Amino acid sequence: MTKNQKTKTKSKTKIRKKILGLIAASSLFILPLILGGYFLLKSEKIPDSAAFEREYLSIALVQPSESSSPVRIIRSVDRGDVFVETVKLISTYDTGKYVDVYGVDGFYTEAGSFILASEGAVSENVGNWVDVPKATFYLAPKQRKEVDVTFSVPHDLVGGTYYGAVIIQESTADEFSGNGAAMRVGGRVGLRVQLTVPEIDYFTLIDVGDLDLWETVDGDLVFGYFIENIGNLEIGETTSTFVLKNLTDGTTVGTHVYVDDEVLLPGERRDMEVGLPWN
């Protein structure tokens, strides 16, 4: 081996030693970091999953129909229908809660968002058709209580779909005043209601029964008859016109008009009595 070859071999040996030294130093530095992180994770207490459960109030439909769901009542109804839905009031709180249950109207905005009327707002549709046994209930800790809710659909509805909700809200929520108005702070949850009333053609039709001569009083002929509203609109006033004719020659003896201004509801029958002057 020449002198130059010996010099090159020594240089390569020195380079190898430096590289090995750097690797060893890096290992000594990285290893404690890895071990420290491992023991840090091992020593940290992982919270129980129950700690992430939120306490809340809820309301659900007990036996949904095919068109409904546990969180929504969807039905087709007729005018004058009365039906009952059983709902479940749910509390996951560790303490007892007094809750209010009531109905409100609902509507869709032009943007397609569903909005429920605020508490205390005057209900003209679904919210006004809801009846619960009482306004306030007590729910014990973690209790679920079933309550019957009665819906009474008015007789005089225009066909269409009507929206609203049955609300459960904590009745002991805090109150504060702002801008001169008192507001109650507390979460409320609604069971959405969607009721569809079919379109119909409105018509007025009265059935008038035959005249029966009852008696003569002070020269008048007293007749009895009935009127019946067989249409589907309320009739605010009825006018009965009687024409008296001579049976011999058919000439008209007299005409008499009687007005009844009492409202006659669809399907209602009313007995009438009228006295016609004979002389």
Structural notes for this entry:
It is built from 2 helices and 18 strands. It is α+β, with helices and mostly antiparallel strands and 279 residues long. The longest helix is centred in the first third of the chain and has 41 residues, at 3-43. It starts with a helix and ends with a strand. Residues 22-52 and 174-185 have low confidence and may be disordered.
Helix content: 10-25%
Biggest β-sheet description:
6 strands, mixed
Shape: elongated
Residue-averaged pLDDT: 76
- What percentage of the residues does DSSP assign to strands (E)? over 45%
Number of strands: 18
Low-confidence stretches: 22-52, 174-185
Total of DSSP H or I helical runs spanning 4+ residues: 2
List the helices and strands in order: HEEEEEHEEEEEEEEEEEEE
Global Rg: 42 Å
First and last CA, distance: 163 Å
